[in-house]
Design brief:
It is a single chain. This protein is an alpha+beta fold. It has a single domain, classed as 2-Layer Sandwich (Heat Shock Protein 90), CATH 3.30.565. Strands 1-2-3-5-4 form a 5-stranded antiparallel sheet, with helices on one face. Helix 1 runs antiparallel to helix 2 and helix 2 runs antiparallel to helix 4.
């Protein structure tokens, strides 16, 4: 098993840092270009949600986003965490086209994209305590679930 953890300021420009870091981290799995693109898109959405929805435009300069990644066999696990405002209703937040920032022309498709591009998505959040987005992506051609004999 390999793992890494990085912490970066909650500013939009660091979304590209997270994308490139996760792409580099997953290279030992020999991913296809499509798999790399899927993971980078999901990470981009999760980090953008943390920055824009977790902290907002007027956040303090010392607020951080944390990305943890680990590889177990051929499965990539990613967790994006913030200590922002949290999500009051996770089910509602995960509905396609729902956004808390319509004035910023947000599409409300972040969680939908994460679900579409990853094999599993789980969100933990509590108002006032932040959000954790857990994502899993199986890399390669072997079956996701092993069959029992």
């Amino acid at each position: 098993m390999n793992r890494m953890r990085m912490e970066f300021r909650a500013v939009s420009v660091n979304e590209s840092l997270a994308r490139m870091t996760v792409a580099a981290f997953m290279t030992p799995l020999n991913p296809t270009l499509e798999e790399i693109s899927d993971v980078k898109t999901a990470v981009s959405e999760a980090v953008t949600n943390a920055v824009i929805h977790g902290y907002g435009e007027d956040h303090e300069s010392d607020e951080m986003v944390v990305m943890e990644c680990r590889i177990e066999k051929d499965v990539l696990h990613i967790t994006i965490m913030d200590e922002g405002v949290g999500i009051e209703n996770i089910d509602k937040a995960m509905e396609p086209l729902f956004t808390t920032k319509p004035e910023q022309e947000r599409s409300g498709m972040g969680f939908s994209f994460m679900e579409a591009f990853m094999d599993d998505l789980h969100v933990e959040s509590e108002p006032g305590k932040g959000t954790k987005v857990h994502m899993i992506k199986k890399i390669g051609l072997t079956p996701w679930i092993e069959k029992e004999d």
